[in-house]
Amino acid sequence: MIENILPSGIAAAELLEYPEGLRAHPAEEHLIAKSVEKRRRDFIGARHCARQALAQLGEPEVPIGKGERGMPLFPRGIVGSLTHCDGYRAAALAHALRFRSVGIDAEPHAELPDGVLESVSLPEERQWLRETESPLHLDRLLFCAKEATYKAWFPLTLRWLGFEDAHITFTVDAADGDSGSGTFHTKLLVPGGTNDGGRPLLDFDGRWQVAGGLILTAIATA
């Protein structure tokens, strides 16, 4: 499903069911040696998807380490993002010569728990939610888009980006009771200097989809 909202040139792989017998790469096992089973399965499943995406790009299926704030460490010349939630793991990777950054996120298509919206949204975003009639759980969509924004931001800056540091607006191309699609625009509200020598980050454009009980968001910055 994730490939539906990614541009050409990005390799993606996903797991809706956890394969029997799937194990951690030996060089990654130490990263999750003390983790609970759910954390292990999410870690292993997402990195399994990442190696499938590497193969699609013609790259060797190497171990994927963990950097600052849990950032996945892809091979030199590769950018990408991982995501997981209940019943879903995915990866999206690309060559850095073609894309500067990638951020994806997956969330269950369900209302946010009580009290969460106020801590992850701006007043303007909450106003939009109040004024927009939709059969979709737009509050969770907003959260999902914020997560994708952070994943696209952090590898280029190595700086924290709070929920209050990004203002997201949406377009809805189609929506019914349990599916929909559209685009979103993230305006960054903090200085966007980067560590790759490129132009400062001012905003991101992304796509979203609701299908199969999941919300998926994706940003790919050239």
UniProtKB/TrEMBL annotation:
Pfam families in alphabetical order: 4PPT_N (PF17837), ACPS (PF01648)
Class of this enzyme: transferase
InterPro entries, alphabetized: 4-PPantetheinyl_Trfase_dom, 4-PPantetheinyl_Trfase_dom_sf, 4PPT_N, Enbac_synth_compD-like, P-Pant_transferase
Domain 4'-phosphopantetheinyl transferase: 101-172
Top-rank taxon, per record: Bacteria
Gene3D superfamilies: 4'-phosphopantetheinyl transferase domain
Annotated transmembrane regions: none
Residue span(s) of domain 4'-phosphopantetheinyl transferase N-terminal: 27-94
Entry's EC annotation: 2.7.8.7
A GO term for molecular function: holo-[acyl-carrier-protein] synthase activity
SUPFAM superfamilies: 4'-phosphopantetheinyl transferase
Keyword Transferase: yes
Protein keywords: Transferase
UniProt key word Transferase: yes
Classification via NCBIfam families: 4PPT_Npt
Descriptive protein name: 4'-phosphopantetheinyl transferase Npt
Provenance organism: Nocardia jiangsuensis
Organismal lineage: Bacteria, Bacillati, Actinomycetota, Actinomycetes, Mycobacteriales
Encoding gene per record: npt
